[in-house]
Amino acid sequence: MVARDFEAELRRAEAGLLAADARFSDVLRRAGPCRLERAAHFRPFEALLAAVTHQQLSGKAATTILGRVKQRLNAGRAPTPQQVQAARLETLRACGLSRNKALALKDLAAKALDGTVPAARALHRLDDEAIVARLTAVRGVGRWTVEMLLMFQLGRLDVLPADDLGVRKGYTRLAGGGPLVTPGALREAAERWRPYRTVASWYCWRVLDV
Q1: Residue 20: DSSP 8-state
Q2: What are the residue numbers of the active site?
Q3: What is the pTM of this model?
């Protein structure tokens, strides 16, 4: 039922976006329905652990390092905050993490244990900006990382990652080309897309694909 309800929300969002900004008509036609998902079950600690590990690395390298962390700390399964907190910094470094990332994971574990990073059920009850404020308190977690979690895990429909280069490039092309739109100008232009800025951003990425 949850999945079907979210699908219906996405279809309404597509119609609303098209009504608000007809420039999306071609990319909606060519890219097809928005394929965002709302995760029925996810653990914010695990999602952020993976996100921090993947920063500034290729997918393959990050997956290898994350696999080593899982193997070293929890026999191949995702480690718990307690296990990351108990791990020595040298152990995390030996998995291939930089010192900064190892320290970020230690801070993430501490903030998961003290409740700064809540469980998914509590996260679902917070609004977007409250989630950004809570999660960016973690070392190494910036606004963009939280915005991706809001969009791809929580299925929030009115998120605008205005600093994302792909969204900016896609909108610039959608708007007819010219200099790359600034984050501030994108935020201003995106006011007409409320309350569906997540879906608009998804289609800005698709502009570059199709």
Answers
A1: H
A2: 164
A3: 0.90
